[in-house]
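Journal club side-thread
Mid-discussion, someone asked how the predicted structure for our own chain would compare to the paper's figures. Pasting it here so we can look after the session.
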Amino acid sequence: MAGKDCPRMAAKIGFIGAGRMAGAMIEGLIAKNVYSKDEIIACAPTEATRNRMTQKCGIKMYEKATDMVDLADVLVLAIKPKYIASLFKDEGVRLGRNHLLISIAAGVKLKALQSYAPESRIVRVMPNHCCMVLEGAAGFVMGEGCTESDRSTVNTVLSAIGLAAEVREEDLDAVTGICGSSPAYLYMAAHALIEAGMKYGLTEEQATVLAAQSMIGAGKMVLQSGMKTDALVDGVCSPGGTTIEGVKVLREEHFENAMIHCVDACVKRSIEMGKE
């Protein structure tokens, strides 16, 4: 049975599950030279997924988690929450003191994860799907017993797919609202800008490139300029110019309040799902 403490590891990181999010993380780790393809392993129950990951990333794949959990001391739990109990109870996965378990399973709290792997150090992560283009945002929580070395490992892994912030577990519902779900809201904003561009004669391709790049640039300005968002808005709004007219409309339409209410609804549902 898998899970006895193992003095020698064949890989540096293993993925329990190889879906889209795990695949993006694996690609990022290889692209950023965090780990080589020979240092990464993963498991997936379907042959099609195993073949796809082997061909795309060149990593060694296994059918069952029990076949690979003792081969790496860092494990990423990347399966749907409804399958976690079966993984440990039915499949018989056992993790030991040597394991650092990084869970990206939405809504599954540290206490529940610890009940399945009481001897392991556990980290809970809420990523977003922009990690698929290595521009993800993630919040993470270090469980009891985690070390500074573990924190460094988590930061290294998450930095391969974007930016991450350490938070308290009770903050993860807010993280869900402002980074886990927010790409959808921003896509809606991009869609509106694209439609407006086409309305005034731009092709869809032209409008898409210009709107998307403007969103990328705005995000970098927020991160890198050192300026508050209000100051950034003022910096674009020349007196008597074009931008200020658009900003007036957004304020009249209560744009910022709508965004806050949107996050409110998301956080509320995240809390409900956590209780379920």
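Post-session note: Strands lie at 11-16, 40-43, 60-62, 72-77, 100-103, 121-126, 136-142, 162-166.
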